[in-house]
Design a protein that fits this description.
By secondary structure, the chain is an alpha/beta fold. The protein is 26% helix and 26% strand. A 7-stranded mixed β-sheet has the order 6-5-4-3-2-1-18. Helix 9 packs across helix 10. The model has no long low-confidence stretch (mean pLDDT 96).
Length: 301
């Protein structure tokens, strides 16, 4: 059975706290692992969460501020130390190539793994696999930043009552699924569209078109809410979102499960982030993230 879940490795913003590590998020998706924004300490958090280097297939960096990227050096060296047997692909803003190079070769080590560099220069599709399409959209932050969106292709759900109406049973059920038709009965006659699942990862940004494009119709949205609403001007000045803004985005674009994260150390009550996102009108499932939390991707509608 395929596993689709988010493993939260760290939830702090610029400064880690006693209870929050710098950023780090692993998305498990049908046997692949996508690691987002490995901040300082990610390698240790992986150990605590039971995540191995062999679990990693892609590394996606939104931007090159330290709390989102300083863990790259350790993660890349661990991938090589453990001789991960499959290709690992790294996505990151093209404008930050010099930072990626410095982190990749921060110290001496033996390279044993094919690490493919696939920098992001503009909005668009980054990769297409049998399980998903990975896209990027530009965000609004003092340094160039991209968010990531993973989309599963739509499929079809077989309807037993329709099969019975047409007298289709046994091996013929598999045949009509494979071939698309059985005599004068089409697959569309006995099935309905099964919407593919969607995931988005939105980090440091002001409100912008990219935020909405990434979040549109997501089953699971991981989004920064660095500030509370009373500090909205501060959020705008520094290129961040508030909890209320994140909640309004999720409400406006039909998000099913909203995960708030990337919290400023200035706040001591994490529940206030949920209260403000709810006050903005979001009524779906909502999680205020904490380190080492596991969040399943919601079941299909």
């Amino acid at each position: 059975m395929s596993v689709r879940e988010l493993v939260v490795l760290g939830t702090a913003s610029q400064v880690p706290t006693r209870h929050r590590n710098h950023n780090g998020y692993l998305l498990r998706w049908d046997g692949e692992g996508l690691l987002f924004d490995p901040g300082e300490g990610t390698q240790r958090q992986m150990l605590r969460a039971g995540v191995a280097a062999h679990d990693l297939h892609r590394i996606c960096v939104t931007h090159f501020h330290g709390d989102h990227s300083l863990g790259l050096a350790g993660v890349i060296q661990r991938i090589n130390l453990d001789r991960v047997p499959h290709e690992v692909t790294a996505h990151y803003p093209h404008s930050g190539q010099r930072f990626f190079d410095r982190l990749r070769y921060a110290t001496a080590y033996r390279e044993t793994v094919a690490l493919t560099q696939a920098p992001v220069a503009a909005d668009g599709v980054l990769a297409t696999t049998p399980s998903y399409t990975l896209e990027a959209r530009k965000l609004s932050h003092p340094v160039e930043s991209f968010g990531y969106r993973l989309v599963e292709a739509d499929g079809r759900r077989i309807l037993p009552d329709r099969l019975a109406e047409h007298g289709i049973k046994g091996p013929d059920v598999g045949r009509i699924q494979r071939e698309g038709a059985l005599g004068d009965v089409s697959l569309e006659d006995v099935s309905e569209v099964r919407r593919g699942q969607r995931f988005a990862f939105v980090m440091d940004t002001r409100l912008c078109d990219g935020v909405y494009a990434l979040a549109e119709g997501c089953d699971l949205l991981v989004i920064e809410s660095t500030f509370l609403d009373e500090d909205e001007q501060l959020a705008t000045d520094h290129g961040h979102l508030t909890a209320g803004q994140a909640g309004r985005v999720a409400k406006d674009v039909g998000v099913r499960h909203l995960v708030l994260t990337h919290f400023s150390q200035r706040y001591s009550d994490p529940d206030e982030f949920e209260r403000q996102a709810r006050a903005a009108g979001f009524e779906g499932e909502l999680t205020v993230a904490h380190d080492l939390l596991r969040v399943p991707v919601p079941k299909r509608r």
